[in-house]
Amino acid sequence: MPNPQVIEHADKSELAASTGSRILAVINDAIKNNGIAHLSLTGGTMGIAVWSAIAESGQARTIDWSKVHFWWSDERFVETGHADRNEKQAKDALLDSLEIPAENLHIMGASDVFDSVDKAAEAYTAELKKFAPEGQVSPAFDLGLLGLGPDGHIASLFPDREEIHLSTFDSLAVRNSPKPPPTRVSMSLPVINRARKIWFLIAGSDKQDATARLRQAAELSDDQLTAEILTATPGAGARGTEETLILATQDAL
Question: Residue 219's CB: how many other CB atoms inside 10 A?
Fold first, then answer.
């Protein structure tokens, strides 16, 4: 897997606009080459800003959205429509304004749909497998978008926990998350790394330390990424099969 490359942006506005344009280009290329596009989404402030930038872009109207599938790398196990859900944020900022077939939105289960987070995780694992190429366990995402927490976490894979080290290609039930809400569903790292391209969206001075650790790990080969490094900075383990970019604002570097 190629080592991550850093692309600096002046501020959050520039990062959102630039990333939005990049995403649309990836979607266009995927549809042109394969007839379909699979995207794995992230939540958070920058995720919302990027979806809003796409919604405002004239380029978005040139996309055949019926050929685009949306996935989520993690989700909060709360009720449908809750403001904390990444799905809700993406729908409000972009997805509800597009003509997307309901079956193209691969939504992680909510607490009013499943009576346990384990069942929600199992259902998402089955959904991933349903859309996987023959012999595989999940789609090879054309793009996986990730945030990076101040502690170095990605999706709902947090430092000093076992989830980042699991080698299974599935979705995980996460309990007692150090960041509220405490109960979540997350893709495992092997599923996240099925993406051809992985882009980190990082903004804000509170991310400087985590970004520095991510950049240090970027200089290492896959064989050099030790369990200790992954435990301290889970984001260090996320690398696309073709490209990994750290898209960051100046104050995050």
Answer: 9
